[in-house]
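Attaching the record inline, Q. Sequence:
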Amino acid sequence: MRLPSLVLGCCLGAACASTLSPTPTPSSPSASGPSAVRSRPATVAAEAAGSPDASTSVPVLEAERRAILAELISFDTSHGHETDALRPIARRFEHAGVHADIFESAPGRGTLVARLKGSGAKKPLLLMAHVDVVPVEGQPWTVPPFRATEKDGFLYGRGVSDDKGMASAIVAIVLERARTHAHDALARDVIVALTAGEESDKAGVRWLVEHRAELIDAELAIDEGGAIVAADDLSRIDAVEISATEKITQNYRLVVKGPGGHSSLPPTDADPTAALARALERVAAYRFPPRALLPVKDQLAFRATREKPAVRAALERLVASAPKVAPGDEKIVAADRYLNALIHTTCVTTMLQASPQANVLPTSAEAVVNCRILPDETPAQVMATLERAIGDPAVTVTSEPRVGGVAPLTELDASVMDAVRSAAGRWSGAVVYPTMLIGSSDSRFLRAAGIRSYGLYASPTSFAEDTAGRTAHGPDERVPTKWLDDGVRFLRDVVLNLAR
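Structure, as predicted:
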């Protein structure tokens, strides 16, 4: 089989850019409804006989990962259409002899599940990534968002960071193992789940857990949620973050009722918009008590080594006194938005709604407050806290329906940490530590179902890039090309360490 190749141009100036084009693939008809589009495994004995072994396959692994990534980016999956993006991957698996199905929870909303067979001596390992992305409308992109473009040492494209970079690495790793399976027996089946709907309606993993849980029944899972941290100048890799827990996402709706009527006769005693505005000011002003939980202690200690003296000293004291945080240290540390989120439950207003027309008084003024809750606290406790902070019986606070269960705080399995540390040994001096994801991921569905899921990453980047908004969800989403190949090698080693 001829593997797709990808040659990156060498840019010598700010204006130099090269476009990475995906390998063309034939189209196939779409299924509709909760159904499966099945790939037909092909015989690949002759192909496998000529495949490179592990000692010589790294260049093939790297090139294939980049080609798959370019191919995935070329599909606009910001408003569905995941099935279209997954069909070429199903064909790649088919040609490598790996059984794969595409299941649709709704027309076009496909999730691919493939399985590389091992000996079965241990329960399976699940590798998971989502292929939907956030929209680009209204964002000031300087390159085409749905075309992989290399420029000035970075690879640009919507999803290159979140989460098509991870998806492409997973696929390339499993394809490599499939072609060299006779030389590298695995104790576990390796299951691949490339999912839809993570960024919006959770149409992928949630649907699988509810309808086809047997397909992803695994002991361990690797998902997004960690990081490979490069120095700000991208000269070296400093750390690897692995997450085993995440904050709880919960939305609350605040509602104030009013009599309505014509805007020329405003109320003198009960203005719902004014009452809502006062309530939202109180929500914004309220600070939840700080706590430095166990999953973030090592991360805070690492950040201390990267900060200026005052912040470094505050972080060192905070780590020593954890989970307690002294008021003076909280004030210093919380000036950084990311560090603030690590030690606090946070709530912020994200949506407002009142009158449908300018000259009509609202009969209801409403707001949605999005909270990210530390995992030792419950949504019910947070709602009670918001009601106390608002202190106005005219404001009704209710919980919006949650998607997914609330998994308890979990400790990292020693074998998983050993596997990650071993793979991270390629980077001299890099430290490995657990972290808590301050956003949310599909791992919460797995953890609630009893599958130990850990967040890693396959594309190194820096804190500076993340802070500047050039990674997940931002315009000109990008990753450094310098470390792109190291990232897939790292993840490949983790997978093999866990699957053998």
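The domain at 248-399 is CATH 3.30.70.360 (Alpha-Beta Plaits). The chain is about 30% helix and 20% strand.

More tomorrow.
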